[in-house]
Amino acid sequence: NSVIEFDRDGNMVGELVPSGSSGMIYPTGMVLTENNSLLVSSTLSNQILEFHVETGAFIGVFADDPWLVSTPLNLLITYDDRLLVALENGTVSSFNLETGDSNGVFVSDADNDDLTEPRGMAQLVNGDIIIASMGSNKVLQFDGTTGAYIGRFNNAGTDEALTMDEPWGVRV
């Protein structure tokens, strides 16, 4: 329930955000913003919390809408300054990074090829979003503007033999 800081050589500096700070419970994802704040998904309090990246001081609750931040698992900042929040229910919410205002649901639970327990997210060069679907053993691709399902990103494995088991992270 804390954020631990390490230097570039892998040496532990200490707790940047102490355990349980500002209601942070079971942090599962974090992103660094351009204005030196650290956004952290607090899974069990259903919030996105904001901290100063150098001091760990609590800035405030970035988002806590019960419909759009229900068990947040991971975060992604897009090229056009949106914060995407992957939720345990298989959806992804979108927020304006500068204002914190909700843009609504980005990926809905309809027509998403069984996006289940979404974890890692990354943005491709063309703007599309790929998401590791841990529960369905897939990496799925969505339109970066609309969130519409495009298709399965990884095209390997069969019904009998998986080449991927519970993917967690993706990077481009």
Strand order of the largest sheet: 3-4-5-6
Uncertain regions: pLDDT < 50 for 5+ in a row?
none
Tally the helices: 0
Beta-strand portion reads 35-45%
| Cα separation of the termini | 28 Å
Secondary structure tally: strands = 14
Overall 3D geometry? globular
Helix content percent band: under 10%
Write structural notes for this entry.
With 172 residues, this protein is mainly beta. It contains no helices and 14 strands. It has a 4-stranded antiparallel sheet with strand order 3-4-5-6, with no helix packed on it. The chain has a 4-stranded antiparallel sheet with strand order 7-8-9-10, with no helix packed on it. It has a 4-stranded antiparallel sheet with strand order 11-12-13-14, with no helix packed on it. Strand 12 (129-133) and strand 13 (138-142) form a beta hairpin. It is globular and about 45 Å long. The model has no long low-confidence stretch (mean pLDDT 90).
